[in-house]
Amino acid sequence: MDAINYDSELRRAGAHSTRGWRRLTFLAQRYMLGTVGLFIMVMFVWVALSADIICRFDPLSVDSAHRLAAPDARHWLGTDSFGRDVWSRIVHGARISLAVGIGSTALGSSIGVMIGLASGYLSGWVDLVFQRITDILQALPLLVLALVMTAALGPSLPNVILAIAIPLIPTVARVIRANTLALRELPFVEAAKSIGMSETRIALRHVLPNTLAPLIVLATAQLGSTILTEASLSFLGLGIPEPYPSWGRMLSESAAEYVRVAPWLVIFPGVAISLAVFGTNLFGDALRDILDPRQRG
């Protein structure tokens, strides 16, 4: 009897695995562009984690004898004006871009969720105060507010993450507030109140999980904009300080002076930024279609 039950459990697990694989295959075929975006994102994550393995040179080591060397078998993407290997700097720069993108998106989304949930569920004077704060933050564009914050805090990795996270708060807060206002009127919330459940428990246990789908889509879409904002700050000299490799700073150092004599210094960092933003946008659009039934064809 035990052997029969064990065999049936194996068959059931195999059937579940087959159905899951078929579903993933169907989604990959239906959302081809989203699959491409996911592949690009996974590729950048793998490159960032494997930077010490796939790089032959230290991104900070200076080699004056090979400065401005064109791409060849030794330096795959050439070298910059200090003789530093461009491939190594781009690969290690992926760590900076992903750290800033993921860190600022997670921080801004977390604060925005708390503000939006409290504003939408409690309403009243709490909603009034939080909405006026978000109105003030939304008065300036993302890049302008990030510039102000970075100039005030100083150029460093934690300060850049904080400076980019703060402008993301209003957008997340408004999305969560709108969903919370709709959810608080549904029957399951009234049922939870009728059995004496506290307001905090209702908000955190029943309302918040139902706002995660739009939050995931929004966070994925914002990831690309945070990477682009970090590159813009570094290009303007207010992002990640030297000597740490940053895609935006690589463009800032070479765009004006070496664009004609060494175009690879501009092309390859620009391609890296474009691919990262392109991949996150594609995956974010596909994720929106998958999680929102109204967007499905």
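Above is the first protein from milestone M3; the second protein from the same milestone is given next.
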Amino acid sequence: MNIAILGTGMVGRSIAAKLNELGHKVVMGTRNPENTLTKDDKDAYGNAPFKEWYGEYPQVGLQTFAEATRDSDLIFNCTGGQVSISVLESIGEDVLDGKVLIDVANPLDFSQGMPPSLSPVNTDSLGEQIQKRFPNLKVVKSLNTMNAQLMVNPDLVSGDHNVFICGNNESAKTLAREILVSFGWRDKLIIDLGAITNSRGTEMLLPIWLRLWGALGTAEFNFHIQMN
């Protein structure tokens, strides 16, 4: 499968590496590939420059957002939530129409410092905004409630724990589920919450997730829904 990863941060890198390992043709999208490959500084989270990671994955392509997306069968949105809409607008509706997009981003707002707030929140969500702005794009919200390493390796946390999906298109959710299973998620632990409006709920898990990270001193944890 031809898969485009929008964003070159830690989430995009983790997903790209896993998909490459699984044999997919992966192209990562960025605003300016040349600039992305020449940056020497670490990002805001202390991650190594992209070029250091990229040297380990010569099979992965690097193009502009639009070039990476044009021939894709599936798109992962791993951009910062505050710029996701503008990135997709730079690609264009003609390229996006009819494609499936798994939205991993969260609308974290760092304008007031740490911990970040969410914008939008409560009555709207990033997942909904993307679907509303691009009505012919098949948006599935998933993987946004855990850290990047756990997304593609659920065995990092022992025992049962869950990943959520939501979206308006059933065939798109079926594809997303298949990808999650290939990442190592057991089908019974994938919870379909329904329509894309439910991305409000998964995005609103981020404030408690961030505080748990601080309290536990590790990001290797996840939510488990226990039922009798």
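Note on the second protein: The domain at 2-216 is CATH 3.40.50.720 (Rossmann fold).
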